[in-house]
Each structure stands twice: as structure tokens, then as C-alpha cells.
Amino acid sequence: MNRFVGPFFYEIAKGIGNAFGLDAGDWIVIVIIGILIIIGILLIYIIVVLSYTYIGEWLNKYYKSNETNGGSGDYYDQLLNKSFNGKKDSFRELEFMAGSGDKNAQYYLWLLLKDEKSPYYNIELAIYWLKKSAENGNKNAQKIYNELENE
What is the pTM of this model? Predict the structure, then answer.
């Protein structure tokens, strides 16, 4: 029995067995250990899943903006400012988010590309991202795009 279970688990089995009045070699002790291990794994899994869920929700609330302010969030502002200062990684991240359908990232990419002082100035591409953002429901983009179309 000792060779089958291993010394570590055998000692645990003995401890559990003694606590419940069972012999260390009883099969029930091994079953109890198995159940405890399964319960432990399930608890760890639940904790990890819940943690990622709550962390994800918190990050989403912190970094993403709501519709009332038209998409201006701290994270987008940071990417925009870093991109204006020539940080290619920030520009690529903003571009990736916009390409993934993020209406607010599309709007901020338009802000970056339309500005003549921007190192990434490109008015045609700026208008493309403004249109995409408007199509995806960004309120500010819709307002600006409609004004441009009416001119």
C-alpha cells in the first residue's frame, strides 16, 4: 500500500484515517484523499475563473469609456498621447484595437490621424476610421461624420 500511494500521501492517509478512526491502509482513506484533492482542484479552478472574471470587469470599467462621454477613456487618452509623442507601440495597439472593431479606438485613431502635428498624419485614413467608428455606434463619430457629409 505504501509503495502504491507514496510516502507523502500515505502519511496524509494515516492522519485522515486516525482522525476518522480508520486504519491507514483502509481503502476509504484513499477515497477521502481523492475526494479532497478533487475538491481542492475545483476550488482553485473556481477562484481562478472568478478572479479573471472580476479582474476583466474591473479593467473594462477602468479602461473603456461609456457612451455618455462619447468614448473618452483614460486608456484611450494614454494611447493617443503616447502616439502623438511618437511611441510606435501605442500607435500599433490603437490600430490593432481599431481593426478589431473597437469603436472608441477607431474614434481615437481618427483624432490621431487627422491632426497635422501628429507623426502619423493621414487625412484619408483618418476619415476611413471616423466612418468606421460612426458605423459602429460611437456617438461623437456619428455627429462629426454627419456634419462632414452635410458640408
Answer: 0.51
